[in-house]
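Example noted here:
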Amino acid sequence: MNITDIAQRNGNLKVLISGASVAGPALAYWLRRYGFSPTVVERAPALREGGYAVDFRGRAHLALLERMGIRADVEKAQTHMGATSYVNAVGKRIADMPADLFAGDIEILRGDLAHILYDLTRDGTEYIFGDSITSITEDAGGVDVTFERGAPRRFDLVVGADGLHSAVRALTFGPESRFVRELGLYCAVFPTANRLRLDHAGRAYIAPGKVVSVFSARHNTEARAMFYFASPPLSYDRHDTEAQKKILAEVFAGVGWETPRLLADMADAPDFYFDSISQVHMDHWSKGRVVLLGDAASCPSPLSGMGTGLAMVGAYVLAGELAAAGGDHRRAFARYEEEMRAYATACQKQGQGVSKWMVPDSGLMAWFVNQNFKLLPYVPWKGLIAKGVRKVAEGITLKTYE
């Protein structure tokens, strides 16, 4: 069956997608291609800029970019990141970590990827910015949805592609405390000047319970500062950026290397990301006419390096199964989960157990980690880590739905 036949069979079913970062627009692309009518609602007033770098690696990820026709655009905007050097408190280089441990085959800033996906889909997709879903009421024929600002509307299906703190998940399945598992770390990212004159490279400094790093971005014209720190669960307003900056400044007060200057830059940073390093574990990703996608369903955590690839593969599979089922959401949702469950589980395992190596909790452990990093380029098994990550990324075979 060709694309035209699939589109006619699907009868232009209306699908509401919550979230306009990566998973949502990727799903909108495939839904539109199969004849569905997608609407994307995003709480933020515009596309979210900046953020950390995200990876694509292995056959499945790269084949997906090619099928969407955006591989060239993604490669044009990639970071071309090279090695990351670990330094001591006065900036002396301790060890170099090869790029393939961090960057995959293609690395791109999350905000740049979001713009590529938005440009790809905006002509065939309705986007609503500055609004969010407040209630979801399902009956035999569809779903009635109310919004914080807009008028109520009716859709055939609702997809929660709204991340770790998914509103759709909370409204449909219950509070996030039932599904979100914190890994004991917090992360902050914001843009800064490339004062270290990094040439497609990174620098990182490890202190007990804390990591400070800087990576060049956008062809060395700027940089991204990243902070990780170990902590029990914190209580703060996720929408209060100034409160989050205050937490970060207090935690990293007195830390050496470039930390004081980076914290000073933070005050005027045009965008700022702060959140826990967490995973989402659920027994089921759908309920009735509502289904979850990407981090909302199975966040593997940024430490896995798999979140973006997992989200875009999930979008492809979900749309493809809906198309193959002729819009029958019960059959499609079940097949989507059958296809994706083992892959999502493997990606989550990739992110577990990394935290103590990423952010050692004592001075002795920090010294031990630095010594291991120093020796890594010379040990015969140095390539096994990157190969292991690639094996997980390639752990799914993409079906052909058209």
